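Notes from the 1:1 (GR / supervisor)

We went over the backlog. Supervisor wanted to see one worked example end to end before approving the batch request, so GR pasted a single chain during the call. The sequence is below; no edits were made to it. Supervisor asked that the structure be written out right there so they could see what the output format looks like.
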Amino acid sequence: MLVNFFRHAARSLAAGASVAVIGAILGLTPAVAHDEERRRKTQDHDTALSALSRGEIVRLEVVLAAVNTAVPGEVVGVELKLRQSDWLYEVKVLSPDGIALRVLVDGRTGRVLDTKQKGLDIKRKRE
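Structure output shown during the call:
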């Protein structure tokens, strides 16, 4: 009976150790993901600054002014993307009536190229 107690105790400790190891791994995962996200954002920021210093893109203020003129609403997100050899700002706007819009802006000139209602195929191309 005492032997069974020790076997049970040993199994419980082993199971507890496994749970502790798994918990430690899971506990580290968000921290690692957070560090990776921070590193990616730093690289994105450095890439944008380099493109700006080389004259390949316009300042964000120019882009936001063009978007505010073309589309009423609140800017809720901005991404700078390199597609082939063209820089594009993708600006996410929430219109006054609650419609989510994606506005594409030429990164080199600051001109609004296209406006799409997110989630739909409705397009309003800018000439």
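Supervisor's comment: The longest helix spans residues 2-53.
Batch request approved.
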